[in-house]
Specification:
Chain lengths: 249, 253
């Protein structure tokens, strides 16, 4: 199939950036979106042009590196799918596809489609950990976890930290990411000692990084490649209130 | 299960560092500690619920217009003597007005801070941005709120102080209301209708959002919160629009 892509090109963080149109010919419908960009880049390199920079790593939908807004939707038109798992058969021959980086003050563009997501690392550093003795892994059944809690913790833990929630949020908020991280540790017994400080510190880190607040619009969960539920934000809010109460008593 | 638990913990300690993270972000991060966005939202939720309670009481009072001029005017005068003789006459009304004003100011101030942060959080807009998938109500919270505020200012000048009312007789509020929605003052009725519909949309998302902000976190609870938000908004809109509709159709004159 032959398509046209309009890609955001920006040489560095100081550059203003612009959309540039490229023709991409003879693309297999079974190619992934990233493979299509690989083909484009091979052509650009042969022509002596600068290839389009984009983040990618595992290409299996689990690393959270790929990060592009395709036709205005983070990770493209397929639900619960990362860009690397999105295939060209979901587009039509002759389509003009717009590709842009995540747009957020906290995620500055480094080059083309690559953004700096260190802000997420700062949120994790603020409280995305548990205090546990290091060494050999403990016997799995030594600490029982109710099935319901384990399942919800696991659902929250499927967050790959790609940042699509921020890219889609009308407020540029990272609340779904923060909520997922707070929930997946706060639901298991091992996460209880730091439960209060975790929510307070991670929320402070998300606010201080320049992300917006949540308005419960639900854009984030719609584009989330892992389908992290919006209800976890309610859990974060409840945990926050409890933590505030405990810290004042 | 055991495997799952290990994975949960393993993911927790695995912080992902983007390969190309080179730009120094320290300079970009605001060093000042921001007021928690969730705290601001809690303030909005609590003040919002207070205002909804007032809207419902106000609506019930309004509907007394269907019992005739005497009943309506008597209700209006009674408002001045609420809580007497514990409090001197009109004190309760002024305390309530003070409370509502504080709630409105706190609600708007929190919203303004959050709106400013949201704007700053996305300095470069998307070139290609399809219509946001969230509901119309969610998208219009901010401008809808501004319409409601403008209306409240007009409404107080119209029916509380009587400044903008063609009759403006404080002793006979029934006459003021009837004069307000007269057919030749169609623009007042239009503005009123627009504002009430704006309130309806505002609450449709606002009630659900307040529940979520105060900790609602189950799928079932979400269905209940969304359904309650819709029903409470519809009842409110119907209750408030009944008055101008009745005046215009001559049911109340």
């Amino acid at each position: 199939m032959d398509i046209q892509v309009r890609v955001w090109r920006q040489t560095d963080s100081a550059d203003k950036g612009r959309m540039v149109t490229y023709d991409v010919k003879d693309i297999s419908p079974d190619a992934s979106f990233l493979e299509m960009l690989d083909v484009l880049n091979e052509k650009l390199i042969l022509d002596g042009d600068d290839p389009v920079a984009f983040d990618h790593d595992c290409r299996e939908g689990i690393c959270g590196m790929c990060s592009m807004v395709i036709d205005g939707v983070a990770h493209g038109p397929e639900r619960a799918t990362t860009t690397c798992q999105l295939h060209m058969r979901h587009f039509a021959d002759g389509d003009v596809i717009d590709v842009e980086p995540w747009r957020a003050a906290a995620f500055p563009v480094i080059k083309d489609l690559v953004v700096d997501r260190t802000a997420f690392d700062r949120i994790i550093q603020a409280g995305g950990y548990i205090t546990a003795p290091t060494g050999a892994a403990p016997e799995a059944h030594s600490v029982p976890v109710p099935k319901k809690d384990a399942d919800l913790a696991f659902e929250a833990a499927t967050c790959i930290g790609c940042g699509a929630c921020v890219a889609a949020c009308p407020n540029g908020s990272a609340m779904l990411f923060t909520a997922a991280k707070v929930a997946h540790l706060g639901l298991v017994p091992q996460g209880q000692p730091e439960r209060d400080t975790r929510v307070l510190d991670m929320l402070q880190a998300q606010d201080d990084a320049g992300f917006g607040g949540c308005t419960n619009a639900g854009e984030c969960t719609t584009v989330c490649p892992k389908g992290i539920p919006l209800t976890l934000i309610g859990r974060l809010n409840a945990d926050y209130r409890k933590a505030l109460r405990n810290s004042n008593s | 299960m055991g495997q799952g638990l290990h994975t949960v913990i393993a993911v927790a300690v695995d912080t992902k560092v983007p390969q190309a993270a080179v730009a120094s972000k320290a300079a970009l991060a605001p060093s000042r500690k921001r007021t928690s966005s969730v705290l601001l939202k809690i303030i909005m939720a609590v003040t919002g619920i207070t205002l909804i309670l007032f809207l419902y009481l106000h609506m019930i009072g309004n509907l007394k217009i269907f019992f005739g001029a005497e009943a309506f005017d008597h209700y209006a005068h009674w408002l001045r003597s609420v809580a007497t003789p514990l409090l001197p006459r009109t004190w309760f009304l002024w305390i309530q007005r003070g409370g509502l004003t504080v709630a409105v100011i706190a609600h708007i101030a929190s919203a303004a801070i959050l709106a400013r942060r949201a704007r700053a959080a996305r300095p470069v807009k998307y070139v290609h941005r399809p219509k946001v998938q969230g509901s119309y109500a969610a998208r219009t919270m901010r401008w809808g709120g501004v319409i409601v505020l403008l209306f409240v200012i007009f409404h107080v000048l119209d029916l509380t102080t009587g400044t903008l009312n063609p009759v403006g007789d404080k002793q006979h509020p029934y006459a003021n209301v009837v004069a307000d929605f007269a057919l030749d003052r169609w623009y007042v009725t239009l503005f009123y209708t627009l504002a009430i519909v704006a309130v309806g949309f505002h609450l449709r998302h606002g009630i659900f959002s307040a529940a979520r902000t105060l900790g609602q976190q189950t799928a079932r609870g979400e269905r209940i919160a969304r359904a309650s938000a819709l029903v409470l908004s519809l009842v409110l809109v119907a209750g408030y629009l009944a008055v101008p509709l009745a005046v215009m159709t001559g049911l109340v004159d």
